[in-house]
Amino acid sequence: MEYQNLRVNGRRLQESLEEMARIGATEGGGVHRLALSEEDKQARDLFVKWLQEIGLKVTIDDMGNIFGRRPGKKDDLPSVMCGSHIDTQPKGGRFDGILGVMGGLEVLRTLNDNEIETLRSIVVANWTNEEGTRFSPPMAGSGVWTGKLDKHWIYDRTDMQGKKFGEELERIGYKGNILSKPDPIYAYFEYHIEQGPVLEKENMIIGAPEGIVGMRWCDVYVSGTANQVGPTPMEGRNDALCAAAEMILTINALPQKMGGNMVATVGEIHNFPNSRNIIPDHVHFTVDIRSWDDDRSQSAWIDAKENFQAIANRRGCSVRIEETWQVDHMPFDQRLVTRVLDTAQQLGYPVLKMRSGAGHDAGYLSMVAPTAMIFVPSIGGRSHVEVENTKWEDCESGANVLLQCMLQCAIEA
Ligand SMILES: [Zn+2]
């Protein structure tokens, strides 16, 4: 059979995505499947079952990363891998992450249906805790696997209830007994929704990112003095929430001040004691700064810290800053990016070279293996929300690009 004529089964891919979307389904049509939760466990169980049904060898490492492996004729050659994540944001969407995992599964099912033998083995992976919303930082599974994050530090990270990552991983039965470390990988592909508006706006079906922007995550803790709101005059208050409010606006103003294609966001805030008649004395908020230009991010962060200190001083508060996580911009492998572009073109899909503003496991993977991503459009550019959506035919098109790209790599000596 001519490999070029091989196509995935779009109907089956849709059904798998629909079945996965029932696990953690929300009333608003989204999915709530936080890392290492009961829903994460259920979706993992289903994924493992589907891998085993097509005769794949399944391994689980001690970070809970799941690998389904289809052997090649020369099994000692570095394998061709694809992967993404099963976990979602709180009240997240039906496509973020799971599309890449189900897309990979569909590629393997297609190869089996057509009894295709490849030279190299093909692996599909589910990376643990990509979202980083229940446990920070994000991309914990791929970060440890690639040796960029410390496993024991990750095990000790806690969620808002004080539950530890390592204990939750054990509780759901996915702390495997294989050491989390990289195998030799010939090529890594991650198939994902764009999560932005560009492809839709440009009438494109496939996006080929040349890399991922750099990201910094910080946690900011502001402390003031609590007091009764009535008898305490305005003058001389140490209101932690007012200080935080000013700090948040300086973050919002950073991208314009710094220039370039930077974005900066405060997305999470906790106010204590959070009572209408007590002056707040503790506030914790998060900062996220992203840019392709690492130096610019660095300057932006220095500027932000100076602002925070000045605001805290002026309002009689103190500020503590924890620099939680940071990665520089991550360029992908030129040869594989070109392969995605060429393959999409050969298949007749309009394709755009772009950048990813969102972080992905592919970022860490790109540090240890040649890596590229395949994007498909997000309707209305919406993601990390319940209305997140992608046309089924686009899901199928992206999976065909994934299939062809992986096949081309898997038959190369
Ligand atoms: Zn994702």
Number of domains: 2
Strand content: 15-25%
State the CATH architecture of the largest domain: 3-Layer(aba) Sandwich
Largest sheet strand order = 1-2-4-3-5-14
How do the SSEs run, as a string of H and E? HHEEEHEHHHEHEEHEEEHEEHEHEH
Describe the protein.
There is one protein chain. The model has no long low-confidence stretch (mean pLDDT 96). The longest helix is centred in the C-terminal third of the chain and has 21 residues, at 294-314. The protein has 413 residues and is α/β, with parallel strands linked by helices. Helices cover 35% and strands 21% of the residues. It has 12 helices and 14 strands. It has 2 domains: 3-213 and 329-410, Aminopeptidase (3-Layer(aba) Sandwich); 214-327, Alpha-Beta Plaits (2-Layer Sandwich), CATH 3.30.70. The protein has helices at residues 10-21, 38-53, 98-113, 140-145, 151-156, 165-171, 198-201, 240-258, 294-314, 334-346, 361-365, 392-410, and strands spanning 57-60, 66-70, 79-84, 122-126, 185-193, 206-212, 214-223, 263-265, 269-272, 282-291, 318-327, 330-331, 351-356, 371-376. The strands form 3 sheets. It has a 6-stranded mixed sheet. Strands 7, 8, 9, 10 and 11 form a 5-stranded antiparallel sheet that branches. The protein binds zinc ion. Zinc ion (ZN) is lined by residues 85, 96-97, 130, 192. Zinc ion is lined by residues 85, 96-97, 130, 192.
